[in-house]
Amino acid sequence: MELRQLGYFVTVAEELHFGRAAERLHIVQSAVSQQVRRLERELGAELFDRSPRQVRLTAAGERLLPEARAVIAAAERARAAVGARPRGLRLGTCTGLGEHLDRVLAHFAERAPGAPVELVSVNAGERLARVADGRLDAAFVRAAEPAPGVRIVPLWRDPLVAVVPAGHPVAERPDAALADLADVPLALTARRANPALVDLVVGACHAAGFTPVRGPVGGSLQDTLATIGAGAAPLWTVVYASHARLLRSTRVAFVPFAAELALETGLVVRDGAPDAGAPLDGFLAACAAAADDLGS
Fold first, then answer.
1. Are 36 and 9 in contact (CB under 8 A)?
2. If pLDDT is split at 50, 70 and 90, which confidence band does 179 have?
3. Are 211 and 237 in contact (CB under 8 A)?
4. Where are the alpha helices (H) located in 83-155, listed in sequence order?
5. Which of these, 191, 183, 238, lies nearest to 212 by C-alpha position?
């Protein structure tokens, strides 16, 4: 059994798709399939139920997954223990942190000079799992529910702003009422990708007396902003105010909502005392200092 095979297995288990797993690993799909098959032969059990429509973990695969993650985490700790550079921080990030992330990292650099920070971008569920099993030291989350093995440290509220075409009447106002956008299609991510955000925005629209007209779903934020700015068809979306302040565009306007829409941002850490080899205490202090900056 090779560490590489376990790594491929975990990636497929997280994606439940061999093609997407291969993209994450930056190798061809056939290589992933081959290594997983070799692992299955060595273990004498099928780890995935493969069908033309979907890939699912078998009972054996579900039992192996936490053990494989533990082995990979142990290997990473072993490499760090003998490495020449100081133990850094493995940090899971979420979309739209914007200037918050810059501020936190600046405060952390003051508290732990020279300590490297590895930023990891994965979905919210995977962030929680990686913190729980030690593959991440901490992770940012928004409106997350408590999960086994981790605790959530509240940090700050992240307000949303409306994004509209620069020529739209709302763009000229100091703030936006949701009712002013009732007839404009809303370009929002799919709910499965960010349920807290979608529920907040759609729920606020319902409270304002309308069901939003659904616009395009999916695509990158850059593509969505470009589409809104092009103005071929009216669209609007939302972004976090902290992110909007870093975006530059003359073709769209970022307008605060008259009635605040915001999600709570927190930091997920493992239950119990932090790993003595990781500068987690310093990072928690850096987050607290960044939150204080918002109130000053």
1. yes
2. very high
3. no
4. 99-111, 124-132
5. 183
